[in-house]
């Protein structure tokens, strides 16, 4: 027979009213009494509704997954992979996740979230708000912005080097770089680009570097202008798969054969890679792994556990397909 609130009151040595108040308005019950009631409820396996349990623990088991405004409400394939992994890990540990944009902070602060995953760029104003309310955060897929925010990112410099080294090994001496102007990895990819060219004694052409907004159509237009040059690149490295798809469209509309006349490598290894023909070569970033580990780290922080590491750097891997 299931325990009742009266059983909890009897074991805790207090009134039913006090037990009810401990679940509904815990701040009005002395901490020692509240702890005694909680211990009695656990001993008897008394299970009030989820909202009441949350009040006792001062948690509501809600997490926020926060993306850049341009990713909201429709995320690209890579961030959708991260979000899906966050959702699964959170559900396994009894938490709900909802997604919002960093410029909608008023909305999710009212939701009384227990913690926040910052996917991509972190907004300093948002971080300040979170600190002010004592809400823990974990940053995913961008370089750390603060020593007090744990992060999971990828070695984008090495990922870019892998792609560029492969293209040069194939005999390409005119290699273009198409990158998302909004991402911190722009710095990593530019540094890798210059370093690899230097190692192989190849000239640096500023006209071969193309920072664009992260959309297929803007990438197509920018790459089309690059390919209009008399000494246009014969290979392109694109710092996400969305940009690479735009580059493929530009090549096709110019009548260029991929990879015979233009080799292309993307970045992220998202589901877009198998949606193109030929299929897209890409540097694979473990988005699912980042999502799972990020959610795990955040929930550990919420529940008062010490993190074994607060800076995780994952290694990317070049996956070759039909565009190289």
UniProtKB/TrEMBL annotation:
CDD domains for the chain: HTH_LacI (cd01392), PBP1_LacI_sugar_binding-like (cd06267)
Source superkingdom: Bacteria
InterPro entries: HTH_LacI, LacI/GalR-like_sensor, Lambda_DNA-bd_dom_sf, Peripla_BP_I
Keyword DNA-binding listed: yes
Source organism: Butyricicoccus pullicaecorum 1.2
Annotated Pfam families: LacI (PF00356), Peripla_BP_3 (PF13377)
Keyword Transcription: yes
Chain ranges of the HTH lacI-type domain: 3-57
Protein name per UniProt: HTH lacI-type domain-containing protein
């Amino acid at each position: 027979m299931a325990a009742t609130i009266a059983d909890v009151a009897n074991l805790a040595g207090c009134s039913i009213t006090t037990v009810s108040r401990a679940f509904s308005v815990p701040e009005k019950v002395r901490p020692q009494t509240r702890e005694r009631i909680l211990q009695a409820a656990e001993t008897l396996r008394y299970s009030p509704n989820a909202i009441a349990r949350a009040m006792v623990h001062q948690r509501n088991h809600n997490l926020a997954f926060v993306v850049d405004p341009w990713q909201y409400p429709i995320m690209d394939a890579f961030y959708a992979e991260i979000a899906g992994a966050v959702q699964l890990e959170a559900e396994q540990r009894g938490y709900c996740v909802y997604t919002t944009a960093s410029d909608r902070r008023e909305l999710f602060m009212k939701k009384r979230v227990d913690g926040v995953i910052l996917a991509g760029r972190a907004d300093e104003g948002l971080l300040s708000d979170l600190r002010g309310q004592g809400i823990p955060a974990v940053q995913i897929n961008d370089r750390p912005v603060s020593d007090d925010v744990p992060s999971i990112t990828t070695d984008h410099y090495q990922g870019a080097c892998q792609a560029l080294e492969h293209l040069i090994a194939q005999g390409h001496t005119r290699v273009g770089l198409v990158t998302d102007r909004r991402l911190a990895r722009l710095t990593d990819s530019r540094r890798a680009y210059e370093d690899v060219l230097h190692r192989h004694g190849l000239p640096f052409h500023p006209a071969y570097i193309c920072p664009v907004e992260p959309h297929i159509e803007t990438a197509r237009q920018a790459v089309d202008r690059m390919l209009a040059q008399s000494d246009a690149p014969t290979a392109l490295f694109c710092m996400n798969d969305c940009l690479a798809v735009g580059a493929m469209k530009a090549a096709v509309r110019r009548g260029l054969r991929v990879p015979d006349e233009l080799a292309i490598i993307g970045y992220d290894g998202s589901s877009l890679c198998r949606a193109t023909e030929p299929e897209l070569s890409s540097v694979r970033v473990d988005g699912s792994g980042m999502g799972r580990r990020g959610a795990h780290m955040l929930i550990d922080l919420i529940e008062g556990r010490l993190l074994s590491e607060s800076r995780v750097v994952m290694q990317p891997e070049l996956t070759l397909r039909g565009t190289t």
